[in-house]
Amino acid sequence: MLSNTSRLLAGALALAIVPVQAIVPVQAADLRGGSLPVAYAAPVQPMSIVSEVRIGGAVQDPGSAERDTNNINGEILFAKPLVSLDPFWQAFVPRPTVGGSYNFGGRTSYAYIGATWTVDLFPKTFNNIVFLEGFFGAGAHNGHTGLKATTPPGFNSLGCNPLFREAAALGFRLTEHWSIMATVEHMSNAGLCSNNRGLTNYGGKIGYTF
Predict the structure, then answer these.
(1) Whether 30 contacts 192, CB under 8 Å
(2) Residue 133 in 3-state DSSP?
(3) Which of 18, 62, 103, 176 could form a disulfide with 107, with the two C-beta atoms 3.0–4.6 Å apart?
C-alpha cells in the first residue's frame, strides 16, 4: 500500500517539476535576448498661458497722507512669448503681467498691466534660488485727480489717471513652485500733470509658479 502511495507521489512531483524546468530557461532566455521593459518616459507637460500667480500685502505710502493703511495685492504673470530660440536672448523677454491692489482703509486702490523681467542673482553661487525683478507698466486708480487744494483729507494728489507704475522685488525660491518676495512699487504721472505726489508702497508677496 505504502509503495503504491509512494509511486503516486513521485509521479505527481515529476509532473510539477517538468513545467517549471521548461519555463525558467525560457524566462532567462528572454532576459538575455533583449526583450527588456519599455523605458520610462515622462508625460508631456501641457503649455499653460499662465506662468505664475501671486498674492501679498503692502503698507500704503508711509510718508504721505495715505499712511497707516494697508493693501492686499494679487497678480498674474503670463508665459513669455517666444521671441528667440536662443536662450540668451529669450532671457531678456519679459512676462506680461496684470494685477490689482485694494486698500483696506478706503484710500487709493488700483489695477495695473505691464511687463515683468526676472533675473537670477549669481545663479551658480546661489543655485538659482535668489532673483531680482523689475516691472514697468500703467495703472488705473480710484484716487484723487483734481486740484491739490480740493484733495480730500487722507488722500494723495495724483494728478491724473492712469499713472505709470514701476516696481521691483528681491525674491527667494523656496521650492520648484513656491517663492517669496520683498517688494517696492511706485505710481506717478512723471510730471505730465500739475500734481504728481504719487504713491510708493512697500510689502511682500508669495508666488506659485506652474
Answers:
(1) no
(2) strand
(3) 103
Amino acid type, 73: N
What's the DSSP call for residue 83? -
Architecture of domain 50-209: Beta Barrel (2.40)
Where in the chain are the domains? Answer: 50-209
d(CA 52, CA 30): 49
H or E element at residue 89: helix 87-90
Rounded alpha-carbon distances, angstroms, from residue 161 to 4, 85, 108, 116: 107, 39, 12, 22
Which pLDDT tens digit goes with each residue over 48-67?
899 999 999 999 999 999 99
Q: Cell for 56?
A: 501679498
Give 11-55 pLDDT, tens digit per residue: 544 444 444 344 344 444 444 444 445 544 444 444 589 999 999
- State how far the Cα of 97 lies from the Cα of 177, in Å rounded to an integer: 18
3-class DSSP assignment, residue 176? coil
